[in-house]
Here is the input.
Amino acid sequence: MNRHTLLVLLVVGILMAAGGFGARWLVGAMADDAVIVLHGASQFDDRHSYTKALEHFAERVAAHYDGPERLEFILHKNGELGVEKDYMGYMNLGVVVDYAIVSPSHISTFSRMATVMDIPFTFRDVAHYTKAMEANVFRRVEDDLRERADVLVLGYGGGEKRHFFGRRPVRTMDELRGFAMRVQGAPIQTRMFSALGASPTVISSAEVYNALQTGVIDGAENSASAIEQSKWYEVGSEVSLSTVSIIVRPLIFSGKTFRRLPEALQQAIVQAGVEAALFERNIEMTQDDALMRQLSEDGKITLHTFSERATMLELADSVKAAFARETGASDVLAAINAIR
Here is the structure.
């Protein structure tokens, strides 16, 4: 937890101890009888799809709500209130942050079941992913999060595809064998890529550039936007189109804040959440392939096709099934697999 987060929590603690927290200025606050203030948070700047979606969410809530109170939305951008893990902690407590888009890896702090959203090779293709999002296959995860974290999932953003990239191309299972790759800290990542023959190592995203540059790793897997924003193409320009995963990014709202709000505003928030998540998803899915092509046309990357993805999916099945059993999400994975 960073220094800023600790300072915010200290302020919250002082306010609560003094009896001054709640219907004031921090979260879900009513500055007076006529104003309701809600706070959102994004790690990113105005250009990022998460920030745009959270701004759209505020607009849609205001459009749907016709109550007597004036609504005020304050969106804290550029990591002003920490990172997504901090946002989840705040929303669980009902302080500082009311709504945010959060990676499942941070949600899993409260619900192991939520990691089913992040299992590689969960979706066969974009059409399968889209149908799954529309079918609300994560309903049981939502129930678990309400119980364990006291947060509501309003909708699902995401849609970017993640691919292998690095110092050398990965076009076949043979080329994947022994590929020293960076993976995220979630245990399923190491298990999955080990089962596929790669040599995974957990490294933070901040260290990927240097690890590629020095040859500590051969590569990693990520989306076009991440490759571009982090300039990983400078040290790992070989991109193998493999659709390792299609990301799911839930839009979360604090349960404690939600219950303090008028019923009509609650309904507006639920409706706006679905719309804002779809808005974010459409941004990602529209920009994803176009950005990858642009990086190629600009000479920043060289594109390759992974020719044995069907084999990779088949090998991944048993790993996915075992992990889903361990996290209590077998029925969720079964629902996803059943979509045609």
